[in-house]
Structures are given as structure tokens and as C-alpha cells.
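stage 2 :: seqdesign
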């Protein structure tokens, strides 16, 4: 699949996969100056990129596992959803889950982008739903 990408600022880095079979493409910080993220706060970090995701797909922005586990930094909304009609800059709201200040430098890998398909749905209101063995059993109702 070919996806068009536009650099909005000098120094923006085109996303790349960390390995041949990686699902995610690393997103890089595009900053004029380093940014400090105070403990338990969120800062928006620009990538300097606009991406034209094809219709029928969306860009899902996930945490980089190493950054989350080792530095306590993750996308504030856990998974960002970038719709196919969005043409603005991809910005990652990074949250610091630790009690220590963290610094993000220009060119740091800050998240990963996975291109995923989705199904558009038309919701139809009804008075009845079909029965299932689980029924309306909620959290923990399956005993697992």
C-alpha cells in the first residue's frame, strides 16, 4: 500500500519500521528545542508530518513498548485515532506516568503508527436484540 506523506517542517523524519515484520512505523519528534515533560503531565509533541491515510483505513498511534516500559512515556489517550480525511500534523500527546521529569529531544522516537482497516456502520435503533448465552452479563460475568 502506498501512502502519501508531507513534511511540514525541515527535519521531519518519515516513519520507518524497526524490523522487517514490524506492524508499527516509528514516529519521531520534530522539535526546535528539547521538551521537558513533568511528572504526571502531558505535552503535545509534533512529528512535522501530515499523512494521507487511504479511505477505509485509519492511522492508530500506539505507545512504543520500550519507551513506555523504560521511561514511563505513552500517548495520553493510549491509542490515537487519525482519520483518513485528516490532513493536519500528526501530534502525539505524550504523558509521563513517572515521578521523574522526562526530556524529549528532536529526533526521538515517540510513538508508533499502525495503519488499520475499519468498517463504517449505520446504527439502527431497535426495541429488541437477539439473544446470546452471555446475555447482558458484564465485567467478569464469564468467570475469566
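stage 2 :: out
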Amino acid at each position: 500500500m502506498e501512502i502519501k506523506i508531507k513534511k511540514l517542517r525541515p527535519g521531519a523524519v518519515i516513519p520507518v519500521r524497526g524490523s522487517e515484520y514490524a506492524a508499527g512505523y516509528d514516529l519521531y519528534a520534530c522539535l526546535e528545542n528539547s521538551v521537558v515533560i513533568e511528572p504526571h503531565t502531558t505535552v503535545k509533541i509534533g512529528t512535522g508530518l501530515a499523512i494521507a491515510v487511504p479511505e477505509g483505513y485509519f492511522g492508530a498511534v500506539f505507545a512504543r513498548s520500550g519507551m513506555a516500559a523504560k521511561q514511563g512515556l505513552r500517548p495520553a489517550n493510549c491509542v490515537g485515532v487519525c482519520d483518513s480525511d485528516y490532513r493536519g500534523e500528526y501530534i502525539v500527546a505524550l504523558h509521563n506516568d513517572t515521578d521523574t521529569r522526562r526530556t524529549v529531544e528532536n529526533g526521538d522516537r515517540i510513538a508508533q503508527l499502525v495503519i488499520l482497516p475499519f468498517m463504517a456502520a449505520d446504527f439502527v435503533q431497535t426495541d429488541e436484540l437477539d439473544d446470546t448465552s452471555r446475555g447482558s452479563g458484564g465485567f467478569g460475568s464469564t468467570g475469566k
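stage 3 :: structure notes
- The chain has a mean pLDDT of 94.
- The chain has one helix and eleven strands.
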